[in-house]
Amino acid sequence: MNENLEKEYVLSSRKRRIVAYIIDHFVMTFLIVGMVFLSLGTNFMDEDNLSNPMARILPTALVGFLLYFSKDSIRGISPGKWVMGIMVRNENNPNEIPSFGKLFVRNLFLIIYPVEFIVLVSSQEKKRLGDKNAKAIVVKNPNKPTKLPRILALVGIGITFFTFIFFFAGSAMKSSDAYKVAISEIGQNEEILSEIGGIKDYGMMPTGSLNISNGYGEARLNIRVIGNEKDINVRVYLSKEPNGKWELIELNK
Known about the structure:
By secondary structure, the protein is of the alpha+beta class. It has 2 domains: 2-171, no CATH class; 176-252, Roll (Nuclear Transport Factor 2, Chain: A), CATH 3.10.450. The protein contains 10 helices and 7 strands. The strands form 2 sheets. Strands 3, 4, 5, 6 and 7 form a 5-stranded antiparallel sheet that branches. A two-stranded antiparallel ribbon has the order 1-2. Strand 5 (216-227) and strand 6 form a beta hairpin.
């Protein structure tokens, strides 16, 4: 077996495996976070939707974790392994891919990732506990794509992640009751209306923070106000009591 392995396949270096794991962890975490956010909806910041968010989060997170531990199920190649040009194979026959069950159990060992890292770094066979349990090896992919598309895919994943977080967070804030009260107060502020010649619209994404805990709320929002004559940025501070409505505390240009 070792002789065939040397002729046909080369074991992956530890460095490639560690980098592949980091990429996988980032990609799968992005997937799980994205699924959780989508299950909550952009109005999850409203108090009416805070009563039992775990009822929506837990099923979605469970599906996400099942996907996480199934990440090598397609040809023994996960997103990170594809980028790093490596793959999982059967140690007794490197031409075969381990079964889905073995690949899944192999990844379950990542729950104890600090131990897995130590075992991988110290093992002469370049194996972690999950590999040994599944009787698997990680080898270089002789048919790996060229470097450019793999780099572009990695960059694309990063851009997609941060774009999603930015737009979802902005949309959630814009759908909140605090934001609605804020723009209502801005629309009634005579000083602002006079300065900008009337309001045409508001910026696409407000920034700032919004927190609700035990019924108490605090919101600090920065809102772009688009006027007929000029645009200005308005900073709004609001708060709320349990079972109460959002109230304006401070408004500054």
